[in-house]
Amino acid sequence: MPSPGLAAVCSLRLHPRKPAVRQHLEATTPMPIMPCSDELMGQAESLVRSVFRGMTPIERFSFIAIRHPNSMAGRLLMFLAGVKDKVAFDVYVDEANQVLGTTGLYRYNRDADEAVWVAWFCVAPKARGRDVGQALMDHTVARARKAGFHRIRLYTSTDPNEAAAQRLYEKNGFKEIGRKKGLFVTTIFREKTL
Question: Torsion angle of alpha carbons 54, 58, 61, 65, nearest 10°?
Answer without folding.
Answer: -130
